[in-house]
Structure of RDD family protein:
Amino acid sequence: MTPDSELPDWPGQRLGLPENGPRSVARIGRRLAAIAIDWGIAVLIAVAFFDYDPLATLAVFVGMQILFTVVVNASVGHLLLGMRVVPMAGGLLGVWRPVVRAALIALVLPAVFWNVDQRGLHDRAAGTILLRR
């Protein structure tokens, strides 16, 4: 890749990440499946404890995203599908990155606009990237 106007051959190439396998950027299919798993779990919890209140479902979803991402660098869906959230700068995620990331995912729109490296606005704001394990 020479000129800036050329698109990379795969997501993460310009970041020095492999095309596929471990440490490659997680693709959209895995991401959608993971969020469906996470939302399904949030719905089940909301049905069981909150009589399926939509706001309670969203609160459970956001809470799960924050808790699991802080503790194990991945949501339940991410874990099941072999992905993890890592900070772009290296080091630990801390607490603020998962909080920002989850809040923006809850708004939906930041998660659907991504760049050539498939980093959504939520990941760019939090300084993270979703990689395969």
Q: What stands out?
A: The chain has one domain: 23-132. The mean pLDDT is 94.
